[in-house]
Amino acid sequence: MIHLIVGNTGSGKTTYSNTLKEKLGGIVFTIDTWNKALFLKDKNDSDGIDWFLERIERSESIMQNLILQLETRNVDSILDLGLSKFSHREKFRNFAKEHSLKIKLHFLDIPKEIRKKRIVERNTTKGETFEFVVSDADFEFMEVWFETPTETEILGGVRELK
């Protein structure tokens, strides 16, 4: 099964994914970890969102191959990819349908004030889920960029409220 972990910046997607991994024995794909390891050292100040999106697309094509391998061994894939846009979530729903895989959306519906506090704390403590500093500007950009899942998307899934 593919688990889509959806939530805006600071909602706790990575922490939730790691908890789900322990519960299910699945494998977590965290895009922040991939970005930090593979791309951030090469990023220039002039590189914008399109630069990231192109690299995320390449990473996800590799992830999809790995997901298919895991499925043959009945291992769940937990996608901590942000999945901020409907179209991004739809890409994985279509992938699952094409390969006859089960899919479940987990929406972390956390208020902005709580998420902002978490980001400030994570930036300061650089704890277990820290990969890079999220600036105020990046946080506010994501507030506009993020598309809340529709009620139809959430049907049969999980909505976490905190």
Could you explain how this protein is built, in words?
The chain is an alpha/beta fold. It has a single domain (2-161), classed as Rossmann fold (3-Layer(aba) Sandwich), CATH 3.40.50.300. Helix content is 52%, strand content 15%. The chain is built from 7 helices and 5 strands. It has helices at residues 13-24, 31-38, 49-71, 86-98, 112-125, 136-145, 151-154; strands at 2-6, 27-30, 77-80, 103-109, 158-161. Strands 2-3-1-4-5 form a 5-stranded parallel sheet. The radius of gyration is 15 Å and the shape is globular. The model has no long low-confidence stretch (mean pLDDT 90).
- Count of discrete alpha- or pi-helical segments spanning 4 or more residues: 7
Helical/strand content category: alpha/beta
Average of pLDDT? 90
CATH topology: Rossmann fold
Rg, alpha carbons: 15 Å
Shape designation: globular
Instruction: Tell me the β content.
Output: 5-15%
Strand order of the largest sheet: 2-3-1-4-5
The major beta sheet can be summarized as: 5 strands, parallel
Instruction: Extract low-pLDDT stretches.
Output: none
CATH H-tier superfamily: P-loop containing nucleotide triphosphate hydrolases
State the order of secondary-structure elements, H for helix, E for strand. EHEHHEHEHHHE
Secondary-structure arrangement, i.e. CATH architecture: 3-Layer(aba) Sandwich
Percent of residues in helices comes to 40-55%
> Which CATH top level class fits?
Alpha Beta
Q: What is the terminal-to-terminal distance?
A: 25 Å
Please provide the count of β strands. Answer: 5
Any idea how many domains? 1
